[in-house]
Amino acid sequence: MGSTSSRTHRTALLPQRAVGRQRVAELLAAASDLIAERGYEATTMAAIAEQAGARIGSLYRFFPNKEAIADTLLHQHLDILREAYDALGRRAASTTPEELADLLIDLLTTLYPRVKSLPALMDVRTDRTELSRQSRATALGGISAALIACAPKLDRQEADDIATVVLNSMKTMLGMVRKTVPTSPGAPAELRLMNRLYLAARLTPLRSG
Question: In what residue span(s) does the HTH tetR-type domain sit (predicted)?
């Protein structure tokens, strides 16, 4: 798929009634599942309708083509990530470094069911490099803000450096849970402990009080 234009994105019908919004949510969930499982190119409009238990005409009523579905999903997924990091930042001020470590290490794993098609969608975009940059910047900015909220004396550059380490740990945990990276039964618990010890060592001396 080429870069989806804003015009294509606007052609998706945004229903006003609750029943219509529910139907669109079901269609998008079906599309996300299939794209994550099969890839974008192998996912057809007919397969999406079948997965959602909908008539093909109902799908085309809301989305004129697969590009419109992909564009809607992509924006939806990125919004979910932004909201999650914003919520984490608000919560971080009242957490200990160990508690924050647990929240961070589980974040991508918790969010994955809601954004599972994001990697496949980004892979087929001509602007995927920019989208990847935006996604990474959102993650690093959100983690850095949470670290500083937890440890207000933390320098911004140090926070950015720690955030980079933590983000890599988060991605590794997601890979272990999904079994897309080498793992063992006790490895996730070891990674969780390592993350807790790391943030406790880095943040505890820099907390207020």
Answer: 21-81
pLDDT at 9: 44
d(CA 38, CA 121): 11
Angle at 175 between CA 183 and CA 182, to 5 degrees: 25
Domains of the chain plus CATH, in order, are 15-64 (1.10.10.60), 70-206 (1.10.357)
Neighbours of 94 (CB within 10 A): 10
What six digits make up the tokens of 180? Answer: 């897309």
Q: How many CB atoms lie within 10 A of CB 21?
A: 12
**Chain segment 38-94, per-residue pLDDT in tens:** 999 999 999 999 999 999 999 999 999 999 999 899 989 999 999 999 999 999 999
Helix (H) or strand (E) segment spanning residue 38: helix 18-38
